[in-house]
Write a structure and sequence with these properties.
The chain is an all-alpha fold and 41 residues long. It is 22% helix and 0% strand. It has 1 helix and no strands. The longest helix is centred in the N-terminal third of the chain and has 9 residues. The protein is elongated and about 40 Å long. It starts with a helix and ends in a 31-residue tail after the last helix. It comes from Sporosarcina quadrami. This is YhfH family protein.
Length: 41
């Protein structure tokens, strides 16, 4: 069972920034949906 969960996270596709569409170089399961350039406060 644990192996299935690990495989699930390994196989997630890369996330893309919601603003510019650039691939986000973070963990794919993170909550952020913007890249560092677009995530300005």
């Amino acid at each position: 069972m644990l192996e299935n969960v690990i495989e699930f996270f390994k196989n997630l596709p890369p996330k893309n920034c919601a603003t510019c569409g650039e691939e986000i170089e973070e963990q794919h399961e993170c909550y952020s949906n913007k890249c560092d350039k677009c995530n300005v406060l």
